[in-house]
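Example record used in the benchmark description.
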Amino acid sequence: MSEMVNFTAGDGRVDGYLSGPTDTPRAGVVVLQEWWGLVPHIEDIARRFAAQGYLALAPDLYHGKSTVEQEEAQHLMDGLDWGLAATEIKGAVDFLRAQGCAKVGVAGFCMGGALTCIAAATAGIDAAAAFYGFPPAPNPMATTCPPTLIFFGENEEVFSVADAQTWAEQQRAQGVVDTEVVVYPGVGHAFFNDTREDVFHAASATDAWNRTLAHFGQHLT
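Model output (C-alpha cells):
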C-alpha cells in the first residue's frame, strides 16, 4: 500500500508519501528527505520500511519542490524554515499515531539526518536513525533523547562527526545506552544512496540498514 496523503502540522497542512503493510503495522516510521526533496529514492526507502511491517510516512518538507541539481538543492535547503520543518515532522509523527501506531521512530538522510536528531529532541518519538547528518552547533539537543543511531562515512565533509560523537557520549552518560555513532571506514557522505554510483557503498549501506532494523525492532515493537 503506497499513496500520497495530506496531514495536519501546526496551523498548516503537509503532503506526504505513505507506505505500509496490508495488515496491522508493527509501528510507524517517519522518513526524512535529503536536500534533493521528496524524490523516488526517499519513497523507495519508505517502501523498504513498509516491507518490514512498518507504516512509513515521508513528509514533503519542500512542499512540492525537488531537484537533481546540486546548486538548486543547496538553494532549497538554504530556504528551508527548520523550525517549521520540525513542526511538520511532529505532525507526521502525530499522523502515524492517529493511524494506530503506538510507537514511532524517525529515519533521515543528509539534511534529513540532521532533522532526525532535532526530531529526537522535540517530536516525542521512541527511536531514531540518522544517516550522515547532525545539527550544527548550537543545536536544540541538550535534552535527553530516545535511543538514536547516527551513521557516517569516515570521509564525511558536510556535518561534524566529532560533534555527533560528543553528543552521543553525553546521552549515554544520561542513561540512554542505545545511542551510538557508527563510522564506516573508507566511505564518504551519502553512502546509502543507491541512486548515486559515485558515493554508494553497498557493504556500508547494508550494515547500516540492518543496524537500523535491529534498533527499531528493539525500541519500536
